[in-house]
Amino acid sequence: MLISRGAKVFIADRNEEAAESFATEMNGKTEVAMAHPLDVIDWDQQATAFSAAVRAFGRIDYVYPLAGIGEKTWTPRATTGEGFAKPDLGVLNTDLVGFLYTVSLALQQFRKQEIHDGFRGKIGCVALGHGVVGFVRSYGKYLPEEGITINAVCPNVVRTAIQEPAFYEVLDAKGLLTPMQGVLDAFDSMLGASDISGELFEVGPNGGYQIRTPPEFLDAESKEVIDLLHEWTYPLQQA
Q1: Strands 33-37 and 62-63
Q2: What is the pLDDT of residue 138?
Q3: What's the chain look like in SS3?
Q4: Distance CA 194, CA 39 (A)
Q5: Which terminal Cβ of the chain has fewer Cβ within 10 Å, N or C?
Q6: pLDDT of residue 239
Q7: How many Cβ atoms sit within 10 Å of the Cβ of residue 138?
Q8: Interval 215-236 mean pLDDT
Q9: What 3 state SS string does 179-190 have?
Q10: Span 77-134, pLDDT tens digits
Q11: Mean pLDDT, range 207-235, rounded to an integer
Q12: Which residues contact 67 (CB under 8 A, 6 or more apart)?
């Protein structure tokens, strides 16, 4: 999607071998892709990878935090015995904390850049949980005035390596897998000078995408409260 438009890409992934293989496949006769090892839950690794991308390209136009792992048991169900077991927050750390690390790095870099072709930088992500949904819908509304946008694609189940193959086979047999093309079309619509930000692009098994509006306010007074909260917290986002 990006390379076909003349962009160069920096692929950061925990699976270094796969990232290198993909970069090699994309490069062909001309180097348009670079790979770098990365564990997204490690801030220092993220900062190192981002610095490498800036050194290589000078300017960063698009950032796509797409790392994620599937659901697993997070807290023990034991009802006997003494003491307490620490919960496993690995999914939260990868799908939300790692995401926020990437967004922070992107924003810091974008704010150092001049507006070019109508924007400073754009972030496109896949919403892997309610935390990402809430963050994109709220924080995304602060950014367009800076020439920055952030939006999230919310696909139903797409065949990836997150789950076991048998899970996808069940959905595929029922015609319930979401086609990847719908996801790509949603991301493609975010490219360029569009100032759409803070929106969710939902993609389902029937393909295509829709921008989904958030729930309505309980009443006019509730909306006024939210507007005042936005006004009150606005300076914090400009610090």
Answers
A1: unpaired
A2: 93
A3: CCHHHCCCEEEEECCHHHHHHHHHHHHCCCCCEEEEECCCCCHHHHHHHHHHHHHHHCCCCEECCCCCCCCCCCCCCCCCCCCCCCCCCHHHHHHHHHHHHHHHHHHHHHCCCCCECCECEEEEEECCCHHHHHHHHHHCCCCHHHCEEEEEEEECCCCCCCCCHHHHHHHHHCCCCCCHHHHHHHHHHCCCCCCCCCCEEEECCCCCCEEECCCCCCCHHHHHHHHHHHHHHHHHHHC
A4: 31
A5: C
A6: 60
A7: 16
A8: 94
A9: CHHHHHHHHHHC
A10: 877 778 888 999 999 999 999 999 999 999 999 999 999 999 999 999 999 889 999 9
A11: 94
A12: 13, 14, 40, 94, 95, 98, 99
- In the sheet with 200-203, reading across from the earlier edge strand, the strands are 62-63, 121-126, 148-155, 200-203, 210-212
For the packed helices 130-139 and 98-110, what is the interaxial angle rounded to 10 degrees? 20
Closest CA to 70 of 146, 165, 143: 165
Question: Does residue 6 have a pLDDT over 90?
Answer: no
Average of per-residue pLDDT across 58-80: 90
